[in-house]
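Thread: Acyl-CoA thioesterase, structure

OP (GT): Posting the sequence first so everyone is looking at the same thing. Length is 125 residues per the record. Can we get the structure tokens written out before standup tomorrow? I want them in the notebook alongside the other entries.
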Amino acid sequence: MTDEKGEVVLRVVPHITDINANGHIFGGWVLSQMDIAGGIIAARIARGAVATVAIEGMTFIAPILLGDIVSVYAHEERRGRTSVAIRIDVVATRGPQETKVELTSGLFTFVALDENHRPRPLPTA
């Protein structure tokens, strides 16, 4: 499924063990989901192994609540010689009315890796 935010790469429901003292989901939990989703798209583009090298412009818009269905969208935003920047947006589907709530957004940069775990050129598009 794709829309203006890109491809839905992951759809997950946080567990009770993922909440903090405020009753919200830990920011680190959502960061890890974003990194997984971005890595899937980056590896597809690189046609092989990638590593996260930067996270830019991370913005938390609203808290994630227990019971939210969390959708992680991703799409390529820019490409370099060995790296690709993936825009990742996270949206919750909340409550019986299935209200859509924008949660967070960030730009994750991944570098393509060779068999020695060194940067390698991305394949031509």
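GT: Both are above now. Quick notes for whoever picks this up: The chain has one domain: 2-112. The first strand starts at residue 2 and ends at 3.
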